[in-house]
Structure formats: C-alpha cells, structure tokens
Design a protein that fits this description.
15 helices; mainly alpha; 5-stranded parallel β-sheet; elongated
Amino acid sequence: MLSGQESGDEGPEPGAGPAEAAASGGGAAASEEDPSEPVPADAGPAVFLSEPVRRRAVEIAAVAMPGLPPGKVPSRLRRFLKFSPAKRAKLAKAELAVAVAADTAFREGLATVLAATDSPLIAAVATGGEVSPMADPAEVAALAYLLRPEGWRELIATAVLAIPETTEAPAQEATREVDPKRLTALEKENGKLRGALADQRTAAAGLQEELRRLRRELKEAEDRAVKAAGDLAAERGRLKHLETERRSERRRLESEVESLRAQLERIRKAEREHERLASSRLWLLMETLSGTATGLRRELGLEPAPDRPADHIAEEYCAEPEERPVEGSRGLDQNDPQRLDHLLSLPNPHLIVDGYNVTISAWGETLTLEQQRNRLVQGLGTVAAQTNAEITVVFDGADAIFGAKPSARGVRVLFSAKGQIADDVVVELTRVEPEGRPVIVVSSDQEVAMRVRREGAFPVPSPLLVRWFQRSR
C-alpha cells in the first residue's frame, strides 16, 4: 500500500484554505475553489480537490512516477526522478499536479503502476469494492482521482465529506490531539522503518562477518608472505653457497689447466729433442747410404744412361705427324688438390699425361684440337721448369694430324699408332718403369686409373693438372 509517509508528508502548507464539504448527487466535490486548479481532460463536470486530497495525490504520484518508462515521464519532470519521493513531491508539486490533471497518458501510466501493487486499498478503489472505514479519506479520494474507476467522481465526493476540517489556530496545534488514523499510519511507517533497520543490522552483521573473513585471509596472506620471504632467504643462501663452490671449482680447474700446460710444454720440449736426435741419425744414415751408393756405382762401373724407358715406348708407339687424334675420356670425380704437388715433390718422378682426356674436359668447348694440344704442352713445359719431373704426354693418333707437332723444353710428346689408343700407351709407359720410381698418371678415365694403379702408379684426375696450370700463371 502506498502511504503518505513514503513521500515524507509535510502537512498543510501555510496559507492553504480549509477543505469544504463536497456537493452530493451531482458528483462534484464542494471545496474552497482554487482558480489555479487544473481541470481533468475527462468529459464531465469539473472536479475541485481539497488541499489534503490534492497534496496526497501529488505524494502518491511522486512515489509511483519512477515505475514508469522514461519515455512516458514528461520532460519537465524527468530531472526530479533522481530525488527521493518526499523531496520529489515537495519540489515538483506544481508540475506533478498539472501533469496529472492535463496529461492523460501520464496519469494512466501512474494508474497502471499503482494497480500493479498488492495494496488492498488500491485494489478496492480500482475495482469499486468496499473501502475499509479505517482508510484515510484523503488517500481514498487521491487514489480515486488517479485511478479513475467507474463512479470515481462520487467516490471523491464521499471521501471529501469524510475529511475533517483543520481550522485550529497555530497556537492550538501544540495541544491538538493526534488523529488515530494518522497514528496508525505512523505506526505502520515505524514498523516499516524497524523492519528496514533490522535488514540493515542483518546486512551489517553480514558485512562484519565478511570483514572478519577478509581479516583472516589477510592474516593468512601475511603468513604466506613471511614464509615466502624465509624461503627466498634460504634460496639466496643456497645460491650463495653454490656460487662459492663454483668459484672453488673454477680455481681448481684453472690450476689443473696450468699444470697440464706445463706438462704439455715439457712433452713438446722432449719431442723437439727427440726430433733433433732423429734428424741427426737420419742425416747420418743418408750420408752412409749415399757413400755406399757412390761406392757401388764406382765398384760396378755404372755410367749415367743416355735414354729412359719411356724413350723405347716412344719409338714403338710414335705415330706419323699427319695423323689426327680423337676425343678421349671425360674427367670424373676430383681428389685432394694438394695430391699433385705432393707427388711432384717426390724424388725423380715421371709425370705421364693422357692428353685429350685433359684438354677436352678443360677447353673442349672453346678451342680446336690443335689449340688444345699446344696449350697443354706449353703448360707441361712450365711444370718441367718448376720441378725435376720427367714429363710425357700421349695423344690419340688414329687420324691424320694437321699442323706441326707441339713441343716444349723437358716435355716428351707421343701419338698412339694407328689402331691403338692413348690409354694403352699410358699403361705401357707405366709398366716399363722400374719398381720404386714414383710414376704419376694424369687421367680422369676410371679404367685407365685402375690399370695404372695395378702397375704401381699414382692416378691423378685431370682437373688437378688444369688447376696447377691456372695457379702457376
């Protein structure tokens, strides 16, 4: 039920006129007329509200107005929605009275909000039922004015007649007896306030319990923080101990490294002494062997040979100069680049070159066969000038050869005879050399390499010789 105490009833304002009796039968309320009182939009005779009824209607409207959607609240009243009902009724009294009287949609919205409550008095007024005789007649008239049930004008007139006149002077207000209905309403309001106070106390108890729980959690968090600080200190101590051990281990390892370095230096010194001793012994042995070889040569009467074994092969396989060579085999995989240098540094080596196998793989796309032969022979002349090697190059000679035979100092140039290939000549040159003499065969032909290896020679791929030419330029 919407009571007057919800809106903070302030009593009649100073200067308000006394209520008059309502007219009977015609449905019009007899009261002291107020020229400023708005007239409802409903058809029918004008309704004049007494001051208590008008004030109570404004209070009820102020309480119900927040239940409306914002769009149904007049714009001039929306700024009062943030106030309490009592303050809203006080500050917006005139605007509320005008809106209720003139704005039918606003009044009907208030009626809908009031009808949705569970107040027995509102239900009785809205349905035209029997109103309790203990109800405040001003409130009944105000509800009838807002709800507009059937026969609402007669209901207002009847309620206004039941409103007592308040003509006491200000001096008599101190001694005026309290209206029993007003006292009942105040008691109800007090009951509501006591209930609200109990709810607040319950909420306060809940908040206190929550505060105690939060204090316990804070204490537990502080304990955990203290424990974590202790664990952190212990971990720092452990890390410091580990750092100390690491430094000790590092010093120990540095000491071992110094000891190993000193030991390594002693070993190197001993190796140098041993190497000097071995060198002196080897030199003495070489001197002895050299003297022995000189003595044997003198004892046997051996003189230097005017020719070499390869010269005999040259006489057997030398082709006519007008015969033309054919293309040889291509190069295969390469070996260590330093292999050729190492072999040429051996004492009294014999370098045998498979001519076209080298030239065609190196310059076959840019030079003619004659240009290839000349370039290879000139390059081998450089090898002969820089080493003490005997050098023989073999070309295929199956066809007629155009141009002069290439030549270079220290290089023997051979062409295979008709019906033979250079590979056989290369293998035969390797076979006739004495066992123990280093023989180097330059060819990328896999079969040639396998055959000369069986004869004790050292096969070398063709690209290594071409690289040697490029490096010696």
